[in-house]
Amino acid sequence: MPSLDFDGDYGRTYRKSIQDSIPGHDVLHEIARAAIRANASDAQQVLVVGPGPGDELPALLNACADAELTVLEPSELMLEQCRKTVANHPGSGRCRLHLSTLNEALNSELKGAHFDLVVCHNVLHLLPGEEQTAMLHDLTQCTAAGGVLLLSAYSEAEDGESQREVFDVAWQRLVDRGVPQETLEKIKDSRNKVVFSLDASRLAAALEQAGWRAPLQLYQGLFIRLWLCRAEGQAEAASAET
Predict the structure, then answer these.
(1) Which one of 137, 140, 165, 190 has the fewest beta carbons within 10 angstroms of its own beta carbon?
(2) Contact by Cβ (8 Å): 151, 227
(3) How confident is the model at residue 17 (pLDDT cuts 50, 70, 90)?
């Protein structure tokens, strides 16, 4: 299966290219930060999966001022950029960086670990369907009872006509941004080869299997969606008592 080279040219130009490939990239992260402050600012243990260059890490350290951050990034280039991103932050000592995938970490240094907040932006759509299901299982398993899982991913409409209409708008947006025709063709060709839709129904099924409530969609920009997911547990019990 072809893949994006995060340790090569793609990784070196990631901060620019992501603005084209993720509609409303900055707005998505703004809403994600607000969701964290509103729902998980008291988190003590936070897991960040696949942050790329780590642009969200300083704000996450600010939002969860007492938390220890565990960061998993399988690309050496991206992990080094994460290190530089947090180097001058006063909370950098609370940030542990690991060169690892989620599955590798949960079978080694993080085996049995649980986190109050798990953040995973724009990673799941790099995996085909069954691998998405496996990763969703891992994400729910390492989220503590009552904890929060915040996800974003490429996610197509599940009916054909809506999907076609959104595609038309998405391609026109890229044309309007001055993306070269050659790059446009590569982006189109990447669908279901490099980038795979995380279907909303797949996410809902994975959460239901884990015994969680349905995901709350906080944002959608064309094919990009952001979800807030809450693990059943102590938080629900406390709410019921009040």
Answers:
(1) 165
(2) yes
(3) confident
Whether 29 shows a pLDDT value over 70: the answer reads yes
Beta strand ranges found along the chain (DSSP E): 45-49, 68-72, 95-98, 115-121, 143-154, 216-221, 224-230
Among residues 122, 188, 201, which one has the least CA distance to residue 157? 201
Half-sphere exposure of 19 (CA within 13 A, CB side): 8
Instruction: List CB contacts of 167: < 8 A, sequence separation 6 or more.
Output: none
Q: Which helix (H) or strand (E) holds 81?
A: helix 76-86
Phi, psi of 171 (to 5 degrees): -65, -40
- What pTM did the predictor assign? 0.90
Please, are residues 156 and 222 in contact by the beta-carbon 8 Å criterion? no
Q: Token pair for residue 10?
A: 């793609």
Tokens standing for residue 77: 């280039």
Task: Work out the angle between the directed axes of helices 160-176 and 181-190 (0-180°, nearest 10).
Answer: 150
